Amino acid sequence: MRSRIPGFRIPLQAKAVALATGTADVPRRLNITGEDLDFVTHRPPIHNQALMARIGHLLVVGAGLSAADAILHALGLRADGINVRVTHVFRGKAEDTKIGKMFGDSHGASMYRDEEWLAQLMRQKASDPRYTAKAESDLQEILEDGSCVIKRKEGEETISEVSVVALLLGAGPSLHFLPPSLRRAQRLQPYVPLTRTVPGEMGKGWKEGL
């Protein structure tokens, strides 16, 4: 690796290189049929005016912070006279998701009351007629008529009349600028915080592949 500082070309050797490329570069995909339909997005729908204009039945896949923001924003639209129905699909048990781990314990006066309420909805310890949780489920296919096929332990299930699908699965860094040989050699599971930042705490230490 050589320095790009004007006037300097200094060879450097290192056992490892950390590329600080930022986050949310390349949204993760499911690579399923229908993923590229015009009512499917890999970012929260609020960023797309066309999707917000047609939102009525929102299907969200994922259980991280972006998914929580999208769901809470959709349910909050009732104050604007817009009633949105949300179907929430996530792979694990509610308590094992990021939302469940970060907000599963209600603190009453917490500044994260909305997120804590969502965590309770996911665990079916609270209810709202506009929200349906599909835990331990995988989205298999998205059809042009708005039908979405999910796989559950009980078998396949079809969710009908979905107007917007939000696949909020996280994102990875864009490493398109690296030569193919280095892209193949990159770490599959980079170092991540041992303890992710949660309300009232800072990340403590580092651990590989958490």
UniProtKB/TrEMBL annotation:
Pfam families attached to this UniProt entry: Pyr_redox_3
The organism is Durusdinium trenchii
Question: What is the protein name stated in its UniProt record?
Answer: L-ornithine N(5)-oxygenase
InterPro entries per the UniProt record, alphabetical? FAD/NAD-bd_sf, OSGIN1/2
Which taxonomic lineage is given here? Eukaryota, Sar, Alveolata, Dinophyceae, Suessiales
